[in-house]
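sry for the spam today, last one i promise. C-alpha cells for design, 306 residues
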C-alpha cells in the first residue's frame, strides 16, 4: 500500500504558485483603476476583496492543472522544472487531496467575489460564472482548454481582458468591452507566458496527445509568432502609455525600455527549448511586471490631475 505524505503549508503555497500571481493581480488592479477613471468610487476593502478573488481563482487553476497533469501522466521529473513547480513528483501527496485543494481555492475565490457585490448584479455574476467554468475546464473535462490550440488566446483574453471587465462591472454594473482594448498589454503578456511554457513542452505534449498551439505550429513557427507578439506587445503598451499619460510618460516608458534593453533582447531571442524553460519563464514573467506594471503606474498618475 502506497504511503502518502501530509499536505504541508509549503505544498499549499507551491500549488497556488505565487510567482504566477502577476497574471491576476495586475489585471484586477487595472480594472479598479478603470473604475476610478470612469468616475466611480470603490473602497480599499472592496478593492482588496476583488484582487483576492482573482488570486484564489488563479490558485485554483494552477492547482487543478498540476493535479490533472499528474493524473494524465503528462509531467515527469525530467521536464526541466524546479521542485516547487513539479510538487506531485517530488512529494508523495494523495492526488485527491490536491484536487480538493484546487476546489477549496475555487470556493474561496467565489466567496470573495460575492462579498464584493453590493447587490444582485447579474452582469458580474455572468462573468464570474464564465470564470468558474474556465477554471474547471482548463485542464479537466472531456475537452480541456489546455489540450487545444486555443489555450494561449483563451488564457490571455480571460485573465488579461475578462478580469478587468469583471472587476469594473462589480461597481458600475456595466459590461464595458472598450476595457478589452485598453487591456491589450495584459492579454498579450499573459498569452506569451502560456506560449513560452507550451513551446518548452512540445515533445512531451505530443506524447500526451496534447494539441497546443506550439504543437500544431512547431517550434520554428511558434518562435516567429512569439517574436511578432512581443513587438505588438511593446507597441500596444507604448501607445496606451501615450494615450493615458501623454508624451512625457511615453519618454519615461521608452527610457525604461532602453535601460532594460539586454533583458528585453533576451526574451526576444529565447530558444523556447525545454532545457531553457526555467530561465525563459522567469524572463517572460519579469517582463510582464516591467511593461504592465509601468503601464498601471502611468494610469494611476494620470488620475491625480482628475
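last one done:
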Amino acid at each position: 500500500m502506497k504511503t502518502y505524505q501530509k499536505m504541508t503549508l509549503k505544498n499549499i503555497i507551491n500549488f497556488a504558485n505565487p510567482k504566477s500571481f502577476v497574471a491576476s493581480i495586475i489585471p484586477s488592479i487595472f480594472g479598479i483603476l478603470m473604475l476610478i477613471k470612469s468616475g466611480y468610487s470603490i473602497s480599499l476593502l472592496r478593492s482588496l476583496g476583488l484582487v483576492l478573488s482573482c488570486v484564489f481563482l488563479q490558485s485554483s487553476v494552477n492547482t487543478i492543472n498540476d493535479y490533472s497533469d499528474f493524473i494524465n501522466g503528462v509531467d515527469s521529473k525530467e521536464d526541466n522544472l524546479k521542485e516547487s513547480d513539479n510538487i506531485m513528483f517530488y512529494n508523495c501527496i494523495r492526488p485527491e487531496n490536491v484536487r480538493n485543494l484546487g476546489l477549496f481555492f475555487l470556493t474561496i475565490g467565489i466567496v470573495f467575489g460575492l462579498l464584493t457585490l453590493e447587490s444582485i448584479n447579474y452582469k458580474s455574476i455572468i462573468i464570474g460564472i464564465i470564470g468558474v467554468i474556465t477554471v474547471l475546464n482548463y485542464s479537466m473535462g472531456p475537452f480541456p482548454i489546455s489540450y487545444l490550440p486555443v489555450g494561449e488566446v483563451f488564457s490571455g483574453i480571460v485573465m488579461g481582458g475578462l478580469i478587468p471587465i469583471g472587476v469594473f462591472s462589480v461597481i458600475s454594473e456595466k459590461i464595458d468591452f472598450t476595457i478589452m482594448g485598453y487591456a491589450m498589454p495584459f492579454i498579450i503578456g499573459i498569452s506569451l507566458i502560456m506560449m513560452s511554457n507550451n513551446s518548452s513542452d512540445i515533445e512531451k505534449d505530443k506524447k500526451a496527445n496534447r494539441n497546443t498551439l506550439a504543437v500544431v505550429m512547431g517550434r520554428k513557427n511558434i518562435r516567429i509568432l512569439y517574436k511578432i507578439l512581443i513587438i505588438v506587445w511593446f507597441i500596444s503598451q507604448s501607445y496606451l502609455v501615450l494615450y493615458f499619460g501623454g508624451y512625457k510618460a511615453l519618454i519615461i516608458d521608452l527610457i525604461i525600455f532602453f535601460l532594460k534593453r539586454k533583458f528585453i533582447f533576451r526574451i526576444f531571442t529565447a530558444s523556447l527549448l525545454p532545457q531553457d524553460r526555467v530561465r525563459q519563464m522567469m524572463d517572460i514573467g519579469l517582463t510582464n511586471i516591467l511593461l504592465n506594471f509601468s503601464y498601471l503606474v502611468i494610469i494611476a498618475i494620470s488620475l491625480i490631475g482628475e
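The longest helix spans residues 219-259. ok im logging off now
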